[in-house]
Amino acid sequence: VKKKASNYEKQAQPVKQTAVLGAGIMGGGIAYQSASKGTPILMKDIKDDAIELGLKEARKLFAKQVERKKLTTEQMAEKLTNIRPTLSYGDFGNVDLVVEAVVENPKVKDAVLTEVEGMVGENTILTSNTSTISINRLAQNLKRPENFCGMHFFNPVHRMPLVEVIRGEKTSDAAVGATVAYARAMGKTPIVVNDCPGFLVNRVLFPYFGGFSFLVEQGADFQHVDKVMEKFGWPMGPAYLLDVVGLDTAVHANEVMAEGFPDRMAREGKTAIQVMYDNERLGQKNDKGFYAYE
Ligand code: NAD
Q1: What is the pLDDT of residues 280-294, one digit of tens each?
Q2: pTM
Q3: In degrees, to the nearest 5, what angle opens at C-alpha 181 toward C-alphas 175 and 183?
Q4: I want to staple 258 with a disulfide (CB 3.0 to 4.6 A). Which of 49, 151, 207, 265 is the partner?
Q5: Pocket of ligand 1 (CB under 6 A)
Q6: Closest residue (by CA) to atom 29 of ligand 1?
Q7: Is 152 an active-site residue?
Q8: How far apart are CA 41 and CA 88, in angstroms?
Q9: Domain coordinates of the chain in residue numbers?
Q10: 203-286 in CATH: which number?
Q11: Is the bond preceding residue 106 a cis peptide, omega within 30 degrees?
Q12: pLDDT tens digits, residue range 153-195?
């Protein structure tokens, strides 16, 4: 972390209209958080049912605020109009900042980022919510890499205060500034970090998941490990956290980390996490992971 996040904001253009690509666990959460704090956001996906899921999640979170008497039903209805679901790039011309939150696959992200760059204005800031993929790597195919940086939220978005703003080699101060300002407008605490696979938090978290997986492969009971880690003081154990993150996302992110740091992160054979993924136990997103959900 070189400069304080706040130093960048002086160079930032105002962020009034935003968009998120992907209405999944993270995209839905980002849309809710932005809408809740008053910045309008387009939520684009390629599937109707994904959009429905994203909206359902946002409605559920707003309804909880109403239950807790933090919002009236009228305020909830008004805030919900800040989320505009779409399957097309029709209204992207006026967007100041885009958060890409599609699947953790470099090829898919390359295609989506190139596509959206052609749909937005020259000054629009593009950001990626990638968990692990290097920002320099994703910037390679972009025409305006200076307008691109990482904006890494944590799951669940409405609860987790931190946002990593990742500066690539070509990222301008203005792009970092706009992203920092948007994170702050969303009520988050941004930190500016340098680029590498996994950035800062996941360079700590993924070795921890690896250690947990190895314990399970050696016969440890995952529920027992979770209970022990809760007693240790973590809000949830690793198995439950993996279910929240999504086993597919964890596997794809770990592949990127293993490619970036082969001596530390690459493993021979299948890990327990990989076996879960192979058996389509993806976690809370499909109601079965280490635990079963209804
Ligand atoms: P997810 O599988 O829940 O959602 C991904 C969504 O992207 C799906 O709705 C899918 O239909 C959509 N999508 C796929 N291709 C698309 C395209 N071309 N255009 C628009 N939408 C498209 O995944 P997620 O957990 O929300 O993860 C999204 C990103 O956020 C990944 O890069 C992931 O690494 C990152 N992330 C995830 C977590 C986490 O805990 N799950 C935390 C931080 C960051």
Answers
A1: 999 999 999 999 998
A2: 0.94
A3: 105
A4: 265
A5: 21-27, 44-47, 50, 101-104, 108, 112, 129-131, 153-155, 245-246, 249, 253, 285
A6: 101
A7: yes
A8: 14
A9: 5-194, 203-286
A10: 1.10.1040.50
A11: no
A12: 999 999 999 999 999 999 999 999 999 999 999 999 999 999 9
CA dist 46 and 125 (Å) reads 21
- Amino acid code (one letter) for 285: K
User: Which residue from 242, 276, 256, 260 is spatially nearest to 104, judged by alpha carbons?
Assistant: 256
Could you tell me the two tokens for 140? 């390679």
Q: List the beta bridge partners of residue 43.
A: 20, 85
Token pair of 272 as six digits: 């327990």
Spell out the residues 6+ positions from residue 146 whose beta carbon is closer than 8 angstroms to its own.
170, 171, 172, 175
d(CA 191, CA 201): 11
Q: ipTM of this model?
A: 0.98
282 contacts 275 by C-beta, under 8 angstroms: no
| Residue 62 phi, psi dihedral angles, 5° rounding | -65, -40
Report the CATH superfamily, name and number, of domain 5-194: NAD(P)-binding Rossmann-like Domain (3.40.50.720)
Which residue type is seen at 23? A
Mutate to test the pocket of ligand 1, among 53, 102, 243 (most ligand atoms within 8 A of CB): 102
